[in-house]
Design a protein that fits this description.
Elements (H helix, E strand, L loop, with lengths): L1 H95 L1 H10 L7
């Protein structure tokens, strides 16, 4: 008991320091948790934003691809119609000129048998 009377200030200082250390530690832990939560929110926002950007890029690439395929089909249809028109024109020319038809057939090695 005598020791407590003589060293109460030291003991009080030790308990005070210990209590203050615990309070500071709790404050640091709360700040750390708050910062961690903030980082998690920022990460979620970045993921969301990057996902949207990626989706927009994919859509744009898909639209570009679809447009180029449609353009290729349109060009193919145009060329097919042109070829069909040339074929019909040539057919009419050959039907009107039998000599030219005979020459064309000879060019393919086809001759008339008698």
């Amino acid at each position: 008991m005598q020791w407590l009377k003589e060293n109460w200030k030291t003991l009080l200082g030790a308990f005070g320091t210990l209590g203050l250390s615990l309070i500071v530690k709790e404050i640091i832990n709360l700040l750390r948790e708050k910062k961690l939560q903030q980082l998690k929110e920022e990460e979620a926002e970045v993921k969301d934003t990057s996902g949207k950007i990626e989706l927009e890029g994919t859509k744009a690439a898909g639209e570009t691809h679809v447009a180029s395929v449609k353009g290729a089909h349109a060009e193919a249809d145009k060329k097919k119609k042109e070829a069909e028109a040339k074929k019909n024109e040539r057919k009419e020319e050959l039907e009107e000129d039998s000599e030219e038809l005979d020459n064309a057939l000879r060019g393919f090695g086809i001759t008339e048998k008698k």
